[in-house]
# Entry
Amino acid sequence: MPFTAQAADAEEIPLTMVCRLTAQRLAASSREAPHFYLTVVAAADDLLAFRAQANDRRGADVKVTVTDLLTWACATALAAHPGVNVSWDETRILQHRHVSVGIAVAIDDGLIVPVIRDADRKTLTEIAREAHDLTARAQARKLTPDELSGGTFTISNLGMYGIRQFTAVINPPQARSSLTAKPSASPSRTATRSPSPIATTMTLTLSIDHRAVDGATAARLLTRLRELLEQPLDTVLWGPQEIF
# Structure
């Protein structure tokens, strides 16, 4: 017979409002949304070199993080593939005119997702500043309800904990979440332009609600995202906007 812990032998931890709402929303998403997942491995050597260049260029200003670069790349890819910038709404699909990227932030009693609005229209500098401010205020519990709503895409990055890959439940009512692991050394030369047999790679997994987005549409977005991350300098030189 399996062991069952008795309430008398356990410490009771009351649920906070954040924890309760998170549990309710994600449980509903898991039950109702037919999830599917797409994963690619992206070369990250050029991305990390570009990040170092960006931070050197910007001097003492707030430093660009890998999550900032992911936010910029996801927003740029979504602008080019609006069919993924959608939400399921029971009797209809809502295709959003604005690209607003939520960034999952861990706090003491759960997870909250502040939103960078119109991220596709902002430079990397603007995204880094806004993300730093939102994260700091999220951890200090100083965000407004408006700053936690309206996201059309969510990024969750656990790479700082050494996680190579994971899949996540979709953040409703969105139709997808983009997830990544920290860039890490790998003997694989998959998707890398580096001549070295040892490359730095990053795993990207896209969680999709099949009611709103089909596999081919999601795959095109993920392919474009990988291109942006693998060739950030090419995007700056030939892209439609100034990244800084």
Notes: The CA atoms of residues 114 and 134 lie 6 Å apart. Helices lie at 17-32, 45-57, 66-80, 124-139, 215-230, 232-238. The longest helix spans residues 17-32.
